[in-house]
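Project outcomes to date are best conveyed with an example. Our students and postdoctoral researchers have been running inverse folding experiments weekly, and each run begins with a structure described purely in tokens. The record below, which covers 109 residues, was selected by the lab manager from last quarter's runs and is presented without edits.
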């Protein structure tokens, strides 16, 4: 990886959007420019780290499955597991339901 590849996204996140998200919390009354800047920068670094790990997993493009795999495998991203769960095919879901029902029937008898 070159040094350029390791730098965070230089375009930056829109601070107005970050301010709106921060103000949506009932506990926050006033947002200083310094705190807005720090939260925006921290968010950029977080998104960069997540995307970089997903890119390592896929090797080429950042994909949903790569992001979900990173969330599942790294403890530091576990809090995102409800937001980025692994995709499950309907066929596999029905099969797991059927297996659970069979297990319950065997346990009940």
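After processing, the design step wrote out the following sequence:
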């Amino acid at each position: 990886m070159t040094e350029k590849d390791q730098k965070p996204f230089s375009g930056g996140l829109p601070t107005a959007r970050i301010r709106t998200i921060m103000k949506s919390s009932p506990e926050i009354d006033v947002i200083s420019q310094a705190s807005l800047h720090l939260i925006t920068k921290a968010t950029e670094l977080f998104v960069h780290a997540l995307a970089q790990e997903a890119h390592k997993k896929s090797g080429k493009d950042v994909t949903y499955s790569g992001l979900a795999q990173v969330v599942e495998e790294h403890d530091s991203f576990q809090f995102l597991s409800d937001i980025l769960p692994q995709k499950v095919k309907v066929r596999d879901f029905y099969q797991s339901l059927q297996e659970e029902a069979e297990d319950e029937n065997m346990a009940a008898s």
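The mean pLDDT is 84. Residues 33-58 form the longest helix (26 residues). The training component of this project remains on track.
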